[in-house]
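Please supply some protein, with fold tokens.
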Amino acid sequence: MSRLFSTPSKLSEDDVDLEALVNDMNSSFESLYSTCSSVQSESVPLLQHNGQVHRDHHRIAPMPPHTHTSNSELQHSTTSPKQRRRRSQPMHILAVRRLQEEEQQLRTSSLPAIPNPFPELSGSPVLSPGSLPPCQPSGTYIINIFSEDGMGKVVEIPADMTARDLCQLLVYKSHCVDDNSWALVEHHPLLGLERCLEDHELVVQVQASMTSEGRFLFRKNYAKYEFFRNPLNFFPEHMVAWCQETNGAIPPSQLLQNFLNSSSCPEIQGFLYVKEMGRKSWKKLYVFLRRSGLYFSTKGTSKEPRHLQLLADLEDSNVFTVTTGKKLHSAPTDYEFCIKPNKRTELKELRMLCTEDEQSRTSWMTAFRLFKYGIVLYQNYKIPQQRKTLSHFSTPVRSVSENSLVAMDFSGRIGRVIDNPLEAQSAAMEEGNAWRKRSQRMNILGSPSPLHPCLLNSVIHRTQLWFHGRITREESHRMIHQQGQVDGLFLLRDSQSNPKAFVLTLCHHQKIKHFQILPCEEDGQIFFSLDDGSTKFTDLIQLVEFYQLNRGVLPCKLKHPCTLVAL
């Protein structure tokens, strides 16, 4: 009998091990799907033997009396092919799948059925839970902000913070003057792209669409709303037309209203260089920018619908300035921009465009923003005039108007504003002469300052935000380009050709000009002049303040200092 029971006892040991393993797995699944415990009792048994569930495998059924069974018959009855198949294929996977399906049904059944407003697009009259739009982000997020010198700052912001709120927060923390010209820039160094975020955009959402190499920069941008300050002369007449035109171009007085009115159909048109997708070649095409998208004509300048093909969509894209156009894309000119989808895209997915001059590029990019955002852009422009305190910090932010500097006369009992430009220039000259006399008198009697006045006048300008030291001509061009190229944008720097001179870099009509400031000596005193000695100043601060009030020999007044901030 020992030989007869050797095989069954061995099989029962195998059954105990397998059942223990399955029971352990069942217990783990039961903890995961505790909500479906009632359903689990109706699932298929894990192991079966001759159609009956094995409950106790430690018992061995006794042999019936007076029965003689051969060893081969016993082995055949206990290890039949059907049994071996069922032992080798436990059914716990099917049970788990059923649990998962039924739990998913329980979850989806708790959601109400939502009518689908667009059944013709999805083919289903009811929206499924997976087709619902994603929830808005909540909580706080960590954002890295970089300044122009490459230094970074980590800021923790709420999920609903806009670009304007973050800029004002950085202005407050960096102790800057808030003149409503600071901007948050989305920068992609590998692609050579950058754009200023609109004031209403959520920073967290923009960061989610950026690649790992993308970063945020904090800098000035004076041209952000230049169109609203000077709309009549912003677009050339040949670029703007109606889609349903009768007499040609739009009247200048209606230009701003037509751009902001969503029911109107203005159109920007003109020739652009377009880079072919996946190639290095460029084609010059006649392009139309409408509210529905950017199109090009396959037949000259024809506007017929059969000749128009879509280049890019406005709704899910943003317009970027290309900073490395000629080097990276072999662009025909330096005035390149691109339309990038609002997702993590590769270089081949970008729509590269190029214009003949800077004014055309600015017009196309501004029109893109106006068509996409419309009245929201104008509201962003108007908000600073109705300033309100941010909820994130209660301390008021300083504000300085560009018209706060005026010529004053304090010769009488009360001060008065000098409105006449000639009288203002005369007062500035008189003030300069009085300063000169005070300096000469201090030289004779001795200066109360540890620094000699001549030495102080030669270094005091280095503390000013508009002075940038020994930067090259190309670096000054880059800084002017980045901060907007508006009239009156300026900076001062050391001269590379004359170590004793300085250079005033000024932007006018989107062109950058340079004026050398030469030192001149009179009665043993050093002065600085921009017009060969006709107007002299004791230091560069006095020179800048004078030309902020008076144009003089310059093409325009100094209005906007080109400023770098350290975070």
